[in-house]
Amino acid sequence: MGCERSADCTEGDQGRCIQVSAYEGECTYHDCTSDLDCASGFTCACGVGILERNRCLLDECAQVSADGEVGCSDDFCQVDMGCSGPAGMRGPSAVSCRTPEDECRVDADCEETERCTKEDGSFRWPHFVCVLSGCAIG
Predict the structure, then answer these.
(1) 137 class by beta-carbon count within 10 Å (0-12 exposed, 13-18 middle, 19+ buried)
(2) Stated pTM of the model
């Protein structure tokens, strides 16, 4: 729904009008206020992504592996900022376990044109690596 100001956004929790172009605003709303608002296996991450929304994200930190081990403690969890945001822009995709093999913790650990995100396809837990900043759209 188009909007000019946050007061126009009344269809959900704490609606905010975010400018998506020079002439167009889009209403955004929080998905959750606590883990209880999310489906099983998901957690409520507060103020994440470029829109700073509360989002229900897949909780890979709490998943049980085939050998019965539970993911990792909160100290080793990190929100993965993949390309799942609006219009393919960078946005939060999951809460994932960190490992000693990670090459980065935050974007500042990477080169200026790179971002820190999890690498898919590793054997046990995905590792966080530096990749080029752009997200493929389309």
Answers:
(1) exposed
(2) 0.63
